[in-house]
Queue: 3 jobs
Job 1
Amino acid sequence: MAEGSQALLTAVEAALDAMEAMRHAFIYAVLQPLRYSVRTLAFVNALLDFPVYESLVDAGLTHAAAVEEMTQLLVRRLIKPRRKK
């Protein structure tokens, strides 16, 4: 691989790593004050990873449908249903 290509690949990898770290930090910052478990934080991180969205679109969902499915799954996981009195 040419030196310039290797430098570009290294820069892209660094940018992707930084984006992933920012996503993790953002999720933690938003959810940590709500005292969700480490397991729930890991679930949210995994669900919001781009390959999950990409898999849904590859399976035939539109962008809007993929976002809706991911959102509904998060809502069901994060918001506990109220008990009837």
Job 2
Amino acid sequence: MKFNWTIKELTESSDDEILYGLVVERRSELNPYAPLSKRLGEISEALQERIKKSKAASPDLYDALKRTLDALFNETSGKPDTPWIRETKERARAAIQRAERGY
């Protein structure tokens, strides 16, 4: 079974989620009793566990990043941003977006 990935799915999915999809896709083409199929099954289970653990950690990470970004904005409000502050804000925004997406 071939799965067509959309650009949105590729940008919003974590590396582990994409790998999981590829492993499951490849495994679906095999005889379920083949050694490769069994090994890919083990790999897909391990990837699922990693995905679950990363999603469980995301809320704490998201909260910490959000508080840091809010503090940074409060500290610099009304002042022109230096290049370092601007870059830090952009990186923090990107990290928050990744945390919201679950990776």
Job 3
Amino acid sequence: MSTTQQAQQPEDREIHGTADIYSVVSELLARAAPGLSKEELEWFKKSGEIAQASFRNFAAALKAIEQSGAFDSNKTVSRMLFFFSDYVRCLEAMIFVADFADEQLRIRELMEQ
């Protein structure tokens, strides 16, 4: 399924599910997309590069945390896993935005031809 299909126009769908970061960003993007300029879409497209860099930093941080012994306590592990899950979901939302913006730019380019 394309990112455009995932972020359909608001009149085509109701809001369902959990209001996590990915869902909120997806809904907002779907509602804003028709009014975004080419320059704005280019800016949103850059979020993918930022997310990739963040994933690399995240991997390095996880390795450092593991080596520090911070995963020795079950209570600590549980809290960290929830945090990591939320962080990855934020990065996932940034990648979705980048893919959506790229797709919108391609569609607009095709329409101009």
